[in-house]
Amino acid sequence: MRGDSSARGQANLVALAVAVVVLTAALGVGLAIADGAFGDAERDATERATAASLAETLVHPDSSLSARHNVLNASAVAQFESWDLDNRHTALEGHDVTVRLDDETLATTGDTTAGTTIRRIVLVEERQSATRTPGLSGTGNPAVTLPRRTDRVVLTLDPDDDTTVSTVRIDERVELHNDSGLAGEHEIAVSPLETATLGIEANGELSEGDVRIEYFPVRTRSAVLEVTVDA
Amino acid sequence: MADRAVSAVVGKALEASIVIIYIGLLTTTLYAGVLPEYRTAAATEVADRTVADVSGDLQTAVPSSTATNRTEHQVDLPATIRGETYWIRVQNGALVLEHPHSDVGERAPIVLPRSVTSVEGEWRSDEQTVITAERSDDTIEVRLETGER
Amino acid sequence: MRDGRGQLSTPVAEAGLGVILIFAVVTTFALGVPAPDTQQAQLDLYAEDTATALSGEAPLHQDATRLTELARSEGAFEREHERADRRLDELLPDNVLYQIETDHGIAGMERPAGVPYGSTTIPTEHGDVTIRVWYA
Hints:
By secondary structure, chain A is of the alpha+beta class.
């Protein structure tokens, strides 16, 4: 029995030694993995914050790219270049930034393949200009409904000498009024949410060419603006 | 009988002491060698996250409607990183986190809409931190200030 | 006591437990590093952007915006929700699913539980409109 127990004691010691070695090895592996985990997580948070800030700044109504919040102006977008990034946002010097709209790269200041991307959904607006010269005939107060929505109207009135235009209404609301006669060019803001109807009140005959209406319909498409920053 | 190897009692005592020495050795090695590095690595992560959060707070602080003239946003910062208080400053158009430990620190560029003409101020991490945005005409001034408790 | 069966003695058992413990802790390192928070921030931005887009659009009738129409009344919701649904489908990337909720009903897809989602709530005169988005 005693011999047995001391044999077991020796075996226990060996087992202890083995256990110590195994534990140390396990710890070593654990430390290696922890090292790897820490190495992976790098400065992602600031990269993301910078990308988000730049994206918001670009779609903000103050931005030179945008017409209003989240709506970009097509011609401004076409003119946007990498040079603009450097100039207008000097704080981004030393960072690699790429700005893309729907797969087309608008501007880039370096290699951003390892960067963080933030996407914003925007509308891209292309303002066109169209003119309507309604074929007016005779007396009566003509009403012209514009075929497209616009946010403003430039009205040019050039009545004959014996006719005076006293009032111009948009959608029943009086916009211009002058008893002694309206003439010349007038710009009127109009609700962009529905097509406008112009009503012209005149005492006399109006003929074609007396009234010219210039309006600015928009062509809108949706797009995704991507900002990638590699710190 | 008992002259081969060691007896049971001594065997147990030996085992116990080996275990104790092992644990002691391990603890010392970890605390002296590996742990400070890990604390620093974790601290840099927290610093990164903090700067990113403040950057986002600056964005939300900018008033979007022209109706408001002055806004105040309270910001929550971790009071200490790696056990020490740190500073957050604005330098050269970038948000900078300054920490006494040389390996902990972070900068992020400040990118805000054009109407924001200036961002100034500094915070110490254990103060009651507030972002104020003041609009006058078309310009907005953003400041890092300390509020009252 | 007889532990004559003998292969497994106490230190070995303890060491075995120790190894399991260490690997449990290590696994949290390896798996527990969270995906960068970009996902949540991005989803919230998607929701806000689509809400902004809907609030700038005219519905089929009335001088209002598509967003306010959805909240205005049950009839208005019935009329507008399909177009709003299609509009969100158009605006959002293909891998993003969405849901619009107002007091008068829910349009869009069913949101699976436990999936991170971004949301935004716009208060309107007749009630709130909430848009939620998540990755497919």
